[in-house]
Amino acid sequence: MHFQLDTNTEAYRDAVRDHLGKVLTPESQERIYRSGVSHDDDFAKGLVDEGYFAPSWLAEFGGQNRNVWDEQVLREELMRADAPMYLSETTRMVASIIRAVGTPEMKDRILGGAMKGDITIALGFTEPECGSDVAAATTKAVREGDQWVINGSKMFTTNGHIADYVFLLARTSPDKPKHKGLTMFLVPLDSDGFEAQAVWTLSGERTNVTFYRDVRVSDEWRVGDVDAGWQVMGLSLQDEHASGWGPHISRLLQHVEQWAATTRADDGSPQLSKTDVRRRIARVAMEDEVSRLLLRRCVWMIETGQIPAAEGPMSKVFSTEALVRASQDVVELVGPDAARSYFEPTAPEQGCFEHLMRFALGTTIYAGTSEVQRSIIAQRGLGLPR
């Protein structure tokens, strides 16, 4: 097992970092934040043009045949820069599933456009009454000839108001056990009967509650076999559960180090010279390092043909809870000034401390709550019963 990057991957990381430094200006970041929408078409297509969209994909599918470490440093840099990538990430996630189990016709229709940034895909898993129990979905799809009629609602369909499609989990056999009566569909969001209503998160991001009222889709939009939706969706959940949020800790660490080096204490000395300041920054640095190592262990496992079934959730639950701890610790350190709003000109580090503390709380819910992650670790890692 190794965690160090080789020379080529370091050079690739530096090139990504340089590109992001040029295109993610303070003005563009403020515009994206105030819109509440973590997506920007020009930015996404700029990544495509530079080869930074899906570098580990085969060239025939629009990739560059790069290895998993190049893919990992790309993700780390995008997250560390707080790039508007969520819709691009979900698009790439669903495209990888279509590549694996989609029909030839669906591959022809979707993959090319998705890899060019011309097609975007949101996720339609969670429902208002189901919480993290995704398999308890009640949105129904009833077959009528060669069409399916969909009725129901989904919660937290982020970017569902601007995406071209939603990757939708629907119940197709109500008489079967909840994990066995589900089917996945790729639903065009210009379909009659679809509606998206805004819901705003604590961090200021817009997500959506979406409604499906007699939405009709052809069977050609089904992804995978009928009633095999849980297995198909598992391909995407595996990717989500193996996500790590450590780069946000790296961003927090960068800002608090900058604050400590440039801010004076009441006695006129640099904040960085204070024992308590250095102790707290050291704690953040340790959380950052552990989060990075846990995530890179997952990358190493994938590289060696293993599935990080428990290790992915370990990375996710540790890094998100560490981000919560670190952001709260830093706000306490900086004091009342840390509560000044994001992009407020007089706020320390332009209000990043306030925003990161709000943002951190949501990360323990995204892609499965900490409780769900711990259950997966217990069952798949420790062999405990459900």
TrEMBL record:
Its cofactor is FAD. Residues 240-381 form the Acyl-CoA dehydrogenase/oxidase C-terminal domain. GO terms for cellular component: plasma membrane. It catalyses: a 2,3-saturated acyl-CoA + A = a 2,3-dehydroacyl-CoA + AH2. Residues 122-207 form the Acyl-CoA oxidase/dehydrogenase middle domain. Keywords: FAD, Flavoprotein, Oxidoreductase. SUPFAM superfamilies: Acyl-CoA dehydrogenase C-terminal domain-like, Acyl-CoA dehydrogenase NM domain-like. Residues 9-117 form the Acyl-CoA dehydrogenase/oxidase N-terminal domain. One of its GO terms (molecular function) is oxidoreductase activity, acting on the CH-CH group of donors. PANTHER family: ACYL-COA DEHYDROGENASE, ACYL-COA DEHYDROGENASE FADE29. Belongs to the acyl-CoA dehydrogenase family. This is Acyl-CoA dehydrogenase domain-containing protein [Frankia sp. EAN1pec]. The lineage of its organism: Bacteria, Bacillati, Actinomycetota, Actinomycetes, Mycobacteriales.
